[in-house]
């Protein structure tokens, strides 16, 4: 299992399922309005997260009265006794509002995560020393699973120096038989899929879909399992037949799944053929054929967690080949890039600090969110040699760093930056430097001020790389891929609202008033030059998908561009499911 996985596709069928449940259960559902509890932006480890009105339906199980606190248990040298696994249904029928025929049927049809599936993800066994830090880390690990909404590990009893633990998880609906849809940047996407993200309760994902996206139509078969058998090896396999080519992916990986993991390794293979497009002002201005082959293998080692810090090392070898050809397109933007091949051994190092904190209602609605406040720094360096088959001798490098800063009890800044590229002996080529800052300010229980700034600057980019800005990557009032250049920047400010409305106990409702400003930097060799600062304002509805694994937050935005060319619509409708607010 790798620590950095590619983002999951934006599934909209999860919302369709939720809407269907709303329609069917409308007559038999209701919701009350219990008194509010105080908010807590970053609760101490083990604290019960606050509930905001009727939206909160999951809370950490109560620790038995009289049980010693974690510090006392750890100092006394207690060890872990029995471990019980308690997978909970999607709907809690002990709550009157959820004891409906529809919700009972959903619980019956859904196969809960098997206790064995949870057990093999535990980082401890009976007889191990009791360590509350490890329990919190294991909760974070379980929450990464898309088929679980929440996970808690709670001491339930102490006897004879042994601490009994209960692992409680809450399932979500994982079967996705239906249609998907979305719209952003003036373009619509759609699809039909049937997939299961928790196959027979084992945590494996199997899916078959047909999707019509911006660039192509794809028939896709996928299989993913982050724990093969009883091991920590993961598999990610894809077979895609596209309207313009094909894609084959196979990855086997045993990543650093926990802070104290000592060994890692993996192999990956990708074979991808497609038609690539160049864009200007939201329109295709040229196309060419691309064939990409990628293969990599690595091994990693670490001494584990020492005094709250981790050092990890990896060595590997990678081969990537990019072949290009003309498809007969005579437009100026159809210039065919030069072929290139890189074969390089590499070494990398990673340093991170164990400073994770929990929050709620920042980027999600009524879900426990895990934020890394400590430093996390990675660097990798390789050498692509002509003697190994590379097109040209060059250093291949990439590095990244991130850090969180708590300015006060209400304000947090999350910083990140990265650089990647090559050096061919005389100059840097295809090099991109990027950075971002995200600011959160808690105004009240239900209001949050958010701002983000990102910057990306390229140098001597390869001809198949365009840095694009538009409605598909943050500038919501403009067509997708509207501006291109050697760099780009984007500023977003949002007033976020988290309401007390939880209709039919299916979706949590929020909203946002936002403004975006951004622009492309440098020259665009394949079209019109950047138009300076572009701005938009808008308003949006947010539906937190609390019952399915098929997308966390549905966005419905109305965005109004404030400048740009006359061909732009004076209003953009954006509908998409994203992993965050």
Explain briefly what this protein structure is:
The chain has 581 residues and is mostly beta strands. Helices cover 8% and strands 51% of the residues. The chain has two domains: 13-171, no CATH class; 175-578, membrane protein fhac: a member of the omp85/tpsb transporter family (Porin, Beta Barrel).
Explained architecture:
The chain has 581 residues and is mainly beta. It has 2 domains: 13-171, no CATH class; 175-578, Porin (Beta Barrel), CATH 2.40.160.50. Helices cover 8% and strands 51% of the residues. The chain is built from 5 helices and 27 strands. The chain has helices spanning 13-25, 70-75, 101-109, 115-119, 132-143; strands spanning 79-88, 148-159, 162-171, 175-184, 187-196, 205-212, 217-225, 234-242, 245-254, 263-280, 283-306, 309-325, 340-353, 356-360, 368-372, 376-384, 394-406, 411-423, 428-444, 447-459, 467-469, 483-485, 487-498, 507-521, 534-545, 553-561, 572-578. The strands form 4 sheets. The chain has a 20-stranded antiparallel β-sheet. Strands 1-3-2 form a 3-stranded mixed β-sheet. A two-stranded antiparallel sheet has the order 14-15. It starts with 12 loop residues before the first helix and ends with a strand. Mean pLDDT is 88; it is low at 1-57.
């Amino acid at each position: 299992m790798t620590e950095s996985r590619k983002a999951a596709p934006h599934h909209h069928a999860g919302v369709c399922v939720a809407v269907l449940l709303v329609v069917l259960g409308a007559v038999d559902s209701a919701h009350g309005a219990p008194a509010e509890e105080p908010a807590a932006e970053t609760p101490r480890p083990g604290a019960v997260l606050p509930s905001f009105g009727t939206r909160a339906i999951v809370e950490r199980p109560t620790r038995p009265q009289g049980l010693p606190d974690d510090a006392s248990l750890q100092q006394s040298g207690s060890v872990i006794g029995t471990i019980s696994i308690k997978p909970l249904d999607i709907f809690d029928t002990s709550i009157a509002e959820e004891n409906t025929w529809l919700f009972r049927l959903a619980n019956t049809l859904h196969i809960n995560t098997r206790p064995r599936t949870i057990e093999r993800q535990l980082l401890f066994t009976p007889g191990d020393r009791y360590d509350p830090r490890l329990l919190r880390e294991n909760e974070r690990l379980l929450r990464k699973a898309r088929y679980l909404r929440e996970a808690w590990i709670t001491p339930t009893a102490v006897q004879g120096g042994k601490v009994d633990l209960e692992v409680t998880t809450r399932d979500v609906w994982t079967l996705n038989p239906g249609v998907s849809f979305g719209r952003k940047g003036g373009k619509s996407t759609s699809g039909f899929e049937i997939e299961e993200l928790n196959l027979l309760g084992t945590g494996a994902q199997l899916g078959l879909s047909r999707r019509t996206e911006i660039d192509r139509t794809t028939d896709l078969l996928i299989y993913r399992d982050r724990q093969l058998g009883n091991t920590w090896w993961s598999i990610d396999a894809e077979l895609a037949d596209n309207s313009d080519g094909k894609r084959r992916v196979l990855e086997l990986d045993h990543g650093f799944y926990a802070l104290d993991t000592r060994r890692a390794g993996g192999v990956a293979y990708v074979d991808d053929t497609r038609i690539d497009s160049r864009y200007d002002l939201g329109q295709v201005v040229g196309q060419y054929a691309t064939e990409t082959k990628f293969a990599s293998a690595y091994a990693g080692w670490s001494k584990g967690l020492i005094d709250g810090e981790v050092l990890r090392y990896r060595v590997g070898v990678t081969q990537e080949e990019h072949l290009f050809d003309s498809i007969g397109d005579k437009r100026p933007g159809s210039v065919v890039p030069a072929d290139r091949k890189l074969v390089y051994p590499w070494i990398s190092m990673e340093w991170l600090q164990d400073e994770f904190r929990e929050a709620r209602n920042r980027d999600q609605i009524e879900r426990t969110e895990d934020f890394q406040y400590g430093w996390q720094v990675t660097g990798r360096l390789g050498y692509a040699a002509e003697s190994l088959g590379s097109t040209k001798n060059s250093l291949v490098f990439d590095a990244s760093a991130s850090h969180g800063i708590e300015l006060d009890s209400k304000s947090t800044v999350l910083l990140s930056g990265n650089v990647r590229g090559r050096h061919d002996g005389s100059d840097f080529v295809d090099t991109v430097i990027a950075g971002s800052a995200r600011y959160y300010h808690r105004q009240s229980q239900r209001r949050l001020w958010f701002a983000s700034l990102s910057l990306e600057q390229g140098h001597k980019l390869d001809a198949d790389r365009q840095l694009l800005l538009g409605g598909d990557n943050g500038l919501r009032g403009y067509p997708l891929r509207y501006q291109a250049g050697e760099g780009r920047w984007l500023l977003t400010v949002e007033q976020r609202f988290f309401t007390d409305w939880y209709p039919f106990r299916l979706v949590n409702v929020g909203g946002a008033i936002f403004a975006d400003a951004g622009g492309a930097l440098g020259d665009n060799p394949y079209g019109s030059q950047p138009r300076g600062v572009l701005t938009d304002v808008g308003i949006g509805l947010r539906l937190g998908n609390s019952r399915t694994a098929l997308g966390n937050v549905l966005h419905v935005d109305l965005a109004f561009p404030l400048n740009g060319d006359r061909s732009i619509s004076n209003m953009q409708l954006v509908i998409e499911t994203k992993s965050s607010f």
